[in-house]
Design goal:
Order of helices and strands: EHEEEHEEHEHEHEEHEEH
Helix content: 25-40%
Strand content: 25-35%
Shape: globular
Radius of gyration: 18 Å
Structural class: alpha/beta
Largest sheet: 5 strands, mixed, barrel
Number of strands: 12
Distance between the termini: 40 Å
């Protein structure tokens, strides 16, 4: 492979994450916010690795006898492309592809449905990506479901063609006790117009969140919208790993309600998820 394809730093670490083989656990918690890494690792019994480069912060340590890594991806699937490719490359460098990663996203999201409560926890069994990342890979899962979605309402024809990706079934079973809702997540390529917010300029589908609330994928209702899950599910599957996305629902786009104590909701979700990781 040309050195311009998989770029390494002078110390042998992967270019963006600055991590070397052996520094990442097989169980990887991903968070968007770099500051949330410390909120997870402060619960560890010990921490052996602390690495930071740009928005990518990584801590690896032990929690109740299990080695865990928590890494920040920043916002968006462009960063997911970097993180997942470089973590998979570390597996290849280790010669350890027989032990695939288990990726657990602990994030936040807003629901588009009246019946999903603010401050609840939602697990995404599938994701619909409007971001386009998987269109650059050989990816064909869920095409029939996406065809049906696009044909269900002419407003979808105004938007980029989405793709579908799915959670790891083992992880859904493992974490289902944490979920108040199991749903289908939309991954958007931005926070404002791509999520139906008309702030500074007109948008193509002004009632985008209402459209989503009335739509389904393979008969399963769309429940929420965020910015990473579809990329996580798609790349994890392509590379032979398992992934699950767990979200604290901090906003209801339909009712206009926002959480009164978002930090506590996220902290409780983290603590419960860690317990399931080590005991489930």
């Amino acid at each position: 492979m040309k050195s311009t394809e998989l770029i390494l730093n002078s110390d042998g670490s992967v270019y963006h994450l600055a991590l070397k083989p052996g520094e990442v656990s097989d169980t990887v918690i991903t968070v968007g916010d770099p500051e949330r890494v410390g909120k997870v690792s402060q619960l560890f019994d010990s921490t052996e690795i602390k690495r930071e480069k740009r928005e990518f912060v990584t801590h690896t340590g032990m929690y109740k006898g299990k080695r865990l890594t928590v890494i920040s991806t920043g916002i968006g699937t462009d960063n997911i492309d970097i993180v997942f490719n470089e973590l998979h490359s570390l597996k290849q460098m280790e010669g350890n592809l027989g032990n695939p990663y288990k990726f657990i996203r602990l994030g936040t999201s807003g629901t588009v449905r009246n019946d999903v409560a603010v401050d609840s926890v939602l697990i995404s069994e599938a994701a619909i990506g409007f971001d386009g990342l998987l269109h650059f890979y050989e990816w064909h899962e869920g095409e029939k479901e996406i065809d049906a979605l696009v044909k269900s309402d002419s407003r979808f024809e105004k938007l980029p063609r989405p793709y579908a990706a799915f959670a790891g079934s083992e992880l859904i079973s493992k974490f289902n006790t944490l979920a108040d809702t199991i749903g289908v997540t939309v991954t958007a390529p931005g926070f404002y117009a791509p999520q139906g917010r008309s702030v500074n300029a007109p948008i193509k589908v002004p009632d985008f969140t209402q459209l989503l609330s009335q739509s389904s994928l393979g008969g399963k209702p769309i429940t929420n919208i965020e910015m990473e899950t579809a990329g996580i599910y798609g790349l994890a599957s392509l590379f032979g790993h398992q992934a699950i996305s767990i979200s604290a629902i901090l906003a209801n786009r339909s009712t206009g309600e926002f959480s009164q104590n978002p930090e506590k909701v996220v902290e409780d979700m983290i603590a419960e998820a860690l317990e399931i990781i080590v005991t489930g």
